[in-house]
Design goal:
Layout: H1 7-10, H2 13-26, E1 33-39, H3 46-56, E2 67-73, E3 78-83, H4 85-108, H5 112-130, E4 146-148
Parallel strand pairs: 1-2, 1-4
Antiparallel strand pairs: 2-3
Helix pairs in contact: 2-5, 4-5
Amino acid sequence: MKRSKNPNKFLTNAELHRIKTKIAAAEQMTSAEIKLVVVKHCLTSIKRKAHKIFKKYNLDKTAQRNCVLILVVTTNRQLLIYGDQGIHEKVGQDFWQEIEKYITTKFRENKMGDGLSAGIHLIGNMLAQYFPFQVDDVNEISDDVVFEN
């Protein structure tokens, strides 16, 4: 199956449902927040794009500074996992690179939903160690996947 470069059609409905379920499940293990954003273009560095998206969707406004952005660029199949200050201080760059490597391996097999779902699960497991779920936890960031053209 050839993947569309249109962010709204990049994932199948089944993949999208599975990913949203994984985000919700991961956030039941940790007080951290996970946000997936799928965009068509990145005309700058992907890190700069992630930083702009992080600010645009107020992902830097969580109480513990513990939000993770998974950014997928459909045109050139780029991926970046971007953790807020509180998380990055705990897990470091190597953790993000290992997750990115796993997801991109699945992308090369055209298993985008599998890669993202498994990556989200791994992120949730790791973050549960540093940011365990709290009884009074509030879902500060919507679990919905964001698509930008």
